[in-house]
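Dig into what follows:
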Amino acid sequence: MYAVIKAGGKQQKVKPGDVIEVELMHGGHGDDITFTPILVVDDDGGTHFGKELGKAVVKAKLVGEEKGDKVKVFKYRPKTGYAKRQGHRQMYTLVQIEDVTLPKRAATKKADKPEKAPEADAGAERKEPAKAEAPASETATEKAEAPSEESASADSS
């Protein structure tokens, strides 16, 4: 099972046991956190998204902090002698994903209702032929009206 979460303005695909880097989160080593803006959950081949994720939770714990790779910033303006060098290392929090849970959906109302008795099904079968006869009578009415329309159009020409 995996989930796509949104943390620190970035989306990340996680599964239990993963250690990911997210933007700096203040907290102590070993603190438990939960990610609630979950975008997608895949549960053994079944993909869940949208309203189905209202109660889905990704549980994790803080493992530590570390600095990211160094980014070199170099500003230069030609013909003026202006050159400025600067570096930056972003702080990240290491988070270990412990569990991805998706609550089970309640049974549908159709499954809760008992099936109709066989006698009621037999009554339904009797009604079907009556419905089949009704369209036949409509087609006869349409046929009666059709020649009058053709003769009216022929007269107007």
